[in-house]
# Entry
Amino acid sequence: MGGHGQEELLILFPLGEANGLPLHFPQEKENIMTGHRKPVDTSRQPKDPLEVVEICDELIMQHRAREAIERFMHPDMMEHDPTVKGGSRDGLFQYMIDEGWDEGNSPNREMVDIVDRRFASGEFVVTMHHIFRNKDDRGTMFIDVVRVVDGLIVEHWDVAQAVPETTNDNPHTMW
# Structure
């Protein structure tokens, strides 16, 4: 298993350090949207599962959850996160509003999401990322799994783990 260097990550803001050393929340908000990231054309409506998830995530990261959900999630989408009311697309949208991921409904504009890795196989796309709610937050690591059919997300699962204060002498980061 080789380490992952900075050049292999989709970075939403510049990293202080990489390869097992701490990441740092950006000091300036403009770094969030201008760091070492590849541009994503959010106007496209692709069928390829990887591209669908990439554009949907980009819209959400821009606090445009309503647009992302309306364009890329099937009306009968199944949400497997037990904290999302009803396990539906509507429940997911309400969850996204409550968590601050929709423009005009965003109580926390400092929140940022860093995508570390993304993999696709057939209809399934796995995204490993971490979210910082503000500059003092240690972050939470997420793994999202989605199933995409005909250009729409039809199912979503996720797992989350808060970044701990101590590592028990483990030199490897969660990302």
In short: Residues 44-162 form a domain with the Nuclear Transport Factor 2; Chain: A, fold (CATH 3.10.450.50). The beta strands are 73-79, 112-121, 124-132, 140-149, 152-162. The two ends are 13 Å apart (CA to CA). Residues 1-37 have pLDDT under 50 and may be disordered.
